[in-house]
Amino acid sequence: xxxxxxxIYIGGRWVQAQGPGWIEVENPATEEIIGRIPxxxxxxxxxxxxxxDEAFRHGPWPRMPMAERTEVLQRVADGIIARSAELDALxxxxxxxVASVAPHMxxxxxxxxxxxxSRGRDISxxxxxxxxxLGRAIVLREPVGPVVAIVPWNAPLIVxxxxxxxxxxxxxxxxVKVSPETPLVSFVxxxxxAAAGLPEGVMSLLPxxxxxxxxxxxxxxxxxxxxxxxxxxxxxxxxxxxxxxTRLTLxxxxxxxAIV
Length: 260
What we know:
Layout: E1 3-4, E2 8-10, E3 13-15, E4 22-26, E5 33-38, H1 42-58, H2 66-82, H3 84-95, H4 102-121, E6 128-132, E7 135-139, E8 147-150, H5 156-169, E9 174-178, H6 184-196, E10 203-207, H7 210-218, E11 224-229, H8 231-242, E12 247-252
Parallel strand pairs: 1-5, 8-9, 8-11, 9-10, 11-12
Antiparallel strand pairs: 2-3, 4-5, 6-7
């Protein structure tokens, strides 16, 4: 049974993609086509960034008390648990993952989400003060702005949760650039985020290729980029972000084996 998605999730809404065409999703274990989804393009990236920037500047999420944000994100953690069977099935079909490992992947993702929620309940957004021999400093905890999270093919569920949850907890809108090789889990996650009650503009998930990722990274409205991928691609991300002095978190290298 093929999974057909006709729209993509931008700023909390399901919209028609303006990208170059369609992505046919293949089960790498059988080479069977198991899904067909729209490919997000540059125009979709601009729309997601505009929505995130508007949500950051004028929306309620960055100004919401931490207790209210954690309530919303608790519903995300609960949603991952509630839909774990579906997420496990996609791990097998979309990634060619081992069925016996699949429940561990969704359980880890749920645990990570819950850990961030629990951590958020212990964080105060009130200014704190530190003194030293040089004087007294005020420490503020504030969201930096729109965050782009670029997710690899080999662990889309866990890596998306690991990147998105702390950024959302901090009050930042998030744009996830989804790998075109394993995109199906992102549609379930979009439904989970939507059901949790995130305000408009706060979350986008864009299935697309390298050109889209490069455009998002270089955009001046993006204030933090979290990238997981190869060292060569990470070097390119760093160069693109340098012009805007965009904050970077890079997880680089390569460890996933392939059987040819």
